[in-house]
Amino acid sequence: MILPVYAIGFPVLRQKAKEITPDYPELNQLIADMYETMYASNGIGLAAPQIGLGIRLFITDGSEIDDIQPEGFKQVFINPEILEEFDTRWDYEEGCLSIPTVRADVNRHSKLVIRYFDEHFKEHVEEYDGMAARIIQHEYDHLEGILFTDRITPLKRTMLKTKLNNIAAGRVNVQYKMKFAKR
């Protein structure tokens, strides 16, 4: 089922998400719905807070990105914890399904080590780099109540203020199902 993506302005996008256990209700269906929602929105990642759930869960699928490693990079991350971010930092233009039509350069580390559970609650500790690391950092930020616009310069954020308020109010044209905070 395609779920609505919550737009900037909802409190759930600003709260630190809570861990879940293997007996979380309908977890497999939730993951399937999140993938369906992400694909319908042309996204490459989606965090549970973006669909109104304050839980530590996000999904990724980088198969549309050239040269991404690991190949395709389709993964479920439950209760993730970034253990280390390292190596060079680089700017790259990011966007977000919760903030449609806004894009900006974000400076992030090029490598990270993360501990997480997959959809079977098998624990992993893995290192990612490049675009896979960037996607993880972006989605992980959602679990910490951080949006990519928090990571841009104050001047750029000020320049986007009206646009962000318009998005929160639903004054934006999107081609996917959304829920707006101030309608």
Quick description:
By secondary structure, the protein is an alpha+beta fold. The chain contains three helices and seven strands, in the order E-H-E-E-E-E-E-H-H-E.
DSSP strand count: 7
Order of helices and strands: EHEEEEEHHE
Summarize the main sheet.
5 strands, antiparallel
Strand content: 25-35%
Task: Estimate nothing, just give the exact number of structural domains.
Answer: 1
Distance between the termini: 24 Å
Specify Rg, calculated over alpha carbons: 16 Å
Can you tell me the CATH architecture? Alpha-Beta Complex
- Would you identify the regions where 5 or more consecutive residues have pLDDT less than 50? none
Structural class: alpha+beta
The strand line-up of the biggest sheet is 2-3-4-5-6
Give me the secondary-structure topology.
Layout: E1 5-6, H1 27-40, E2 45-47, E3 57-61, E4 74-94, E5 104-117, E6 123-129, H2 130-143, H3 154-168, E7 178-179
Parallel strand pairs: 1-7
Antiparallel strand pairs: 2-3, 3-4, 4-5, 5-6
List keywords for this structure.
183 residues, alpha+beta, Peptide Deformylase, 5-stranded antiparallel beta sheet, two-stranded parallel ribbon, 3 helices, 7 strands
